[in-house]
Amino acid sequence: MATRASRNDQTRTNTGGQGRPPLQLLMSTSTPILEMTGISKRFPGVVALDQVSLTVDSAEVVALIGENGAGKSTLMKILGGAINPDSGQICIDGTEVDIRSPREASAFGIEFIHQELSVLDNLDVAANIFLRREPTKAGFLKLIDRKRIHQEADELLRKLGLDISSRTPLGRLPLAHQQLVEIARSLSAGARIIIMDEPTSSLTLTETRRLLEIVRELKGDGVSVIYISHRLHEVEEIADRTVVLRDGKNAGTIERSELTHDVMVRKMVGRDLNEMFKTETTPPQKTTGDGFVVNGLRTQRYPHHSISFTVARGEVLGFAGLVGAGRSEVARSIFGVDEPIAASISLAGRTLQIKTSKDAISHGVYLVPEDRRATGLIVDFNVRENITLPNLLNYSTGKIISSTRETAAAVQAVKSINIKTPSPEMRAANLSGGNQQKVVLARWLACTPKVLIFDEPTRGIDVGAKAEIYGLIRRLANDGVSVIVISSEMEEVLGISDRIAVMHEGRITGILERSQFTEEAVMYLATGSEG
Amino acid sequence: MKKELGIFVLLIVLCVIVSIKEPNFLLAINLQNLARQIGAFGIFSIGLGLVIITGGIELSVGSMMALLGVLMSMMLTEWHIGVVPAILLCILVAMMLSLTHGLLITRINMQPFIVTLCGLLFYRGLARFISNDETKGFGTVAGLDFLRFLANGNLFKIPMPFVLLILISIIAWVALHRSVYGRYLFAAGRNVEAARYAGINTRAIITTAYVVAGALTAISAIIIAFYTNSVSPANHGNAYELYGIAAAVLGGCSLRGGEGSVVGILIGTALIQVLRNLVNLLGIPSSLDLAVMGAVILIGVMADQILTERRNRRQIASMREATASGTPASK
Questions:
Q1: Does B188 touch chain A (CB under 8 A)?
Q2: How distant is the Cα of B327 from the closest Cα of chain A, in angstroms?
Q3: S-S: A366 plus which of A76, A186, A324, A444, CB 3.0-4.6 Å?
Q4: Domain count across chain B
Q5: Tell me: the pLDDT tens digits for A239-249?
Q6: Predicted TM-score (pTM) of this structure
């Protein structure tokens, strides 16, 4: 404890704080730098981790892979001190430690680079790098040593090949650079293990290459990296060893020599994927002029690219692409919550004027948004209030809500798609992710959808609820609804779609027919190669 | 409901203590007086409560009252406008001003605090300017009996402002707790984005709350102007918005928005007026009255906060137990 308290006053070097054995010594011993054994964690209603183990040697890049909800994030949050495990042991350099907060993790040389960057974009680069560890001048005022802070920051930036001044406000930097600033911060904090959670999810191909190079350089400097990614190609390229999690358990470790795409997928999935998606499919009724047509849609984010596509009645059109490709913007512009720069939208041959979400809803065009807690639901409302919110007028007489009709509708909706809740009066916040998603869906099912857009419909949802959601999506399509599914999960988009539109930086780079569906084809288009 | 109950108990306890220490509290004349003030303050407090439920705030109430009071006096005594047109004009002016607030807040995304703070300054200045900073009254103008009755009269011994408050409360209760509009208002106050994704025209909903608050402020302003019978533009209605905000917060409205009830606001208003009354009756130096009020509000809201936190923690604990014993709380 005393060492941590005095950290602020000490001179810091790039390789670590005081009180740690020198690197050479570490590398010469065979004790792994990190050993997590038998880690378990339950959340209300879910076992997130069940006896999971993970070992990292020094200067090793360990990839952590698994489907969404496999427990990767929970495991890393435990290592990063954000949550405490129910049981299990964490050893660093062979000594058991107790990591109770991110600060303590940092003291052990563990730094976390989150998928959603945790930088302060109102401060400059140097301030971000040295946050909470600002070197101060002598004297009781403890003024920040601005000269030193910038000198050291500039040096770190140069080392990472980042040609910017440490005085640049962080908010002005592109995401990829902000991420490098986080890496610089980790290094200056004396990181020995850097956890990277989906670091490339919003990077372009060139930026990704650069990041992988930096990971290699870090390794050369003796830093270990735990690399969480869905991009199996990156994992193949960078990982010394790959640890696979499935449903909160270890599903195997793959050494570099045996690392292939197929092995990874098999271990990750552990079951026949086709079974999960295959439900009776009627071929889409491709009567022309009968479907949903979007022509020349230009969103605020990518005003120079125009998007055009059609979805037939009964068809599921997948939207694949990297995060930031502009898929959600397309969805929001169609639904009218974002104002498009230009758009011509028609349904069954009739042009739709959509200026607000209210217009979209009146035409039967609905959106299940990507962030259900922020935009899909009002989490403090109960299930009933959430379900009836968009068509409250149907349960009202002269604008006064009929409580019996409203409750009846809610009860019926809960039953029809099997929302697991003790009662419709339960606060939505208390439901599991899958059931929350079903509440959002129930709301739209109650107003007879014609076009239903799903944005990441199964993000953060357990496997069982996922299968149910897929079933519902297919059922909707079979009932003649035009369905759009935006998904960043490769298996999902390949499994659920009749056709896939792939986007890259605001453009549709290709539309794949079912016969052309391969992970490679999607990835190829998603990274910006025209199909 | 629990929130209202707590504050209601506080109100009753306070009343009992005061009536034991000073039996005059229960005199008909004192109770009537109290009810009259609860009426006058309750009406605009309900409006403020609506605004607070949207997650906004309205700081210009007191200044607007001074402006409307001055206007009312000038319309009736100087410009010789009829009583009914004067009342309507007064309400209309208030609604137009609040409409401006609402539009600035929802269309230009200005912060409610800033917009209404500027209103607070602007209307006070305007009131002083158009009245030449002179105290305005209603003199001996004939035909004001109706207005005087509204402010000072009784209906079956119940003061008219209180009667009006009850009528308005019933309408507000239905609107807030039973109508589609009320549900939308809570939705917009809780999570404006999610409300928009549900197809609610949140701008219109929020703006309407400000306009209604303006109309209710105007009704209160007319009653209070005739109750005091003179309007000194520099300090008429000073800090009244704070009484309203305090009443709403005591009554369970959260300044974060999306929470609150008409009954709560009524009890909150009553509590604040009882406090003012108590300071008078118990012979507490009147210089201390704001301090007493501040202390009681602080204690009330603090107790509520502590109890809520404790309840939440207990809930989490029971959920943990439920999971530990193998019966998932929700899945």
A1: no
A2: 8
A3: A444
A4: 1
A5: 999 999 988 88
A6: 0.76
